[in-house]
Structures are given as structure tokens and as C-alpha cells.
Write a structure and sequence with these properties.
With 187 residues, the protein is mainly alpha-helical. The chain is built from 7 helices and 4 strands, in the order H-E-H-E-E-H-H-H-E-H-H. The strands form 2 sheets. It has a two-stranded parallel ribbon. Helix 2 links the parallel strand 1 and strand 2. Helix 1 (22-32) packs across helix 2 (45-57) and helix 4 (98-109) crosses helix 6. The longest helix has 22 residues, at 157-178. The N and C termini lie far apart (57 Å).
Length: 187
């Protein structure tokens, strides 16, 4: 992708308080961490030209930058902090297993044929940036729940018990913190 310089606005790199802006900080971070590929939402496409200029001016190798379509809510509007987007911790609280979320997100943005369930190892083996989706996807909570149910049904009894005990322990900790007057946490 090419950008004409006259379409790139002047960019602030350091705030008046001396802290770097995202544009500069991300370039330095990517360089320091030897990042070879950056895969991010296409809403960051405008940052790419600015970041490439910074990489070039510092004589640093530019990582391969790949932009993928965003995920939209069921109503077709962009997911954001103010509209429907949840953090990973919220999905955990709702009972979603990490394997299920990984599988669901992989199916949303990556072509993997008709295979419904894909393990992490299979995803690593199959992954190729050429197979990333080109069109935006809509989150489908029923489908996500279906995939989660599959992974829950695959758990052996010991793993299931471990997850339940962790949830109970987190509830105990939360109640203990919020109710300091009691000597022991409640279940």
C-alpha cells in the first residue's frame, strides 16, 4: 500500500508533558521487541504511514504490517469500549473457555475451510496471513456459545472441577475484600 506525503498530517510524537504518543511509543516498542509482523485492525491503517516514516528515519527495519477487518456487533455497529466490546476477563466471568474464544475468533477472521473446531496447535499449523478474512465480521453470541459448549463438553472431570474451584476461590476472595468486617470469606 502506498501513501502520498500530502495526505499525511503533521503528527505529534511527544506530548507537552514529555510523554510519547502512541504513534512513537508503538514504533519504539516494536523495534525493541524485535517484532517482525504487526497484525491489527484496519482502523489503524492511517497510523501505518506515520509509523513507517518513523521506522525509516531511525534506520530501523520496518515490520510487515497487516491490517484486518474489524469485528462488528450483532447490529452491525463497530464494537468499541462504549458499545458492546468486552475485555477477555469479562468473557471469562461469563464462563467462556479460552480455547473456545480462540476458536471462535479464528473462525471469524481466518479462512479454515469447513472445519468447525480448531485446536491451538492446528491453528498455528494452518495460519497464513494470505487466508485472513477480507470482509468485516459480525459477532454472533449464539455461535460463540455453541463453540464454548463444545469445549466444555470435551473437559475431563478433573479439569472441570479445577475450573469450578477456581471460580469459587475467586468469589471467596471478592467477598472477603468487599466485606472486611468478617474474619472469613463467605462462599
Amino acid at each position: 500500500m502506498a501513501f502520498e506525503n500530502n495526505h499525511i498530517d503533521d503528527t505529534i510524537l511527544i506530548r507537552s508533558d514529555g510523554t510519547p504518543t502512541y504513534i512513537l511509543a508503538s514504533v519504539v516498542d516494536d523495534h525493541d521487541m524485535n517484532i517482525s509482523h504487526i497484525i491489527r485492525g484496519d482502523d489503524h491503517l492511517t497510523n501505518t504511514a506515520k509509523q513507517q516514516i518513523i521506522f525509516e528515519s531511525l534506520n530501523w527495519k520496518i515490520p510487515q504490517m497487516i491490517h484486518i477487518p474489524l469485528i462488528y456487533g450483532p447490529d452491525g455497529s463497530k464494537l468499541s469500549k462504549r458499545h458492546g466490546a468486552l475485555g477477555v476477563d469479562q468473557y471469562e466471568k461469563l464462563g467462556y473457555l479460552p480455547e473456545a474464544l480462540n476458536n471462535y475468533l479464528l473462525k471469524l477472521g481466518f479462512f479454515s475451510g469447513n472445519q468447525e473446531f480448531i485446536s491451538r496447535d492446528e491453528a498455528i499449523e494452518l495460519f497464513d496471513t494470505k487466508n485472513l478474512g477480507k470482509a468485516p465480521a459480525r459477532i454472533d453470541f449464539k455461535k460463540m456459545q455453541s463453540i464454548n459448549n463444545h469445549y466444555i463438553n470435551q473437559l475431563d472431570d478433573n479439569k472441570c472441577l479445577e475450573i469450578i474451584l477456581i471460580k469459587i476461590d475467586k468469589k471467596k476472595s471478592t467477598k472477603f475484600i468487599t466485606n472486611k468486617k468478617k474474619a472469613l470469606p463467605e462462599i
